[in-house]
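## retry 2 of 3
previous attempt timed out at serialization; input unchanged, resubmitting
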Amino acid sequence: MTIKSLILGKGTTCDVYTVVQGQDTQGGPTETDTARLTAVPCWRQTLSGNEGIVVGRHGISASHRFFFLPDVTILATDEIRTGGRIYEVLYNDNPEVFTHHFEVLTKLRG
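## retry succeeded, writing output
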């Protein structure tokens, strides 16, 4: 089974939101989100526990890995939403090396 068949064959789709942080008129934090991509085919893989992964010289704790077709662009400021859950993008895993798919490490919010 190929990665592409897993992405397309599961019937799962993701919505990708860009999140912008700001301040209200009294200096309090605000967050605005805009749907950038909708109903994008994806495959979600749960990592064992909160997996610690070393990225360069930094460690991150990811809960899920998402797989997308290579023509999808996910930014560090994005959120991935699927199944009523929100996932914070932590790292785009090796985006220039893989030509058949695109991986994103995330952490489940909440």
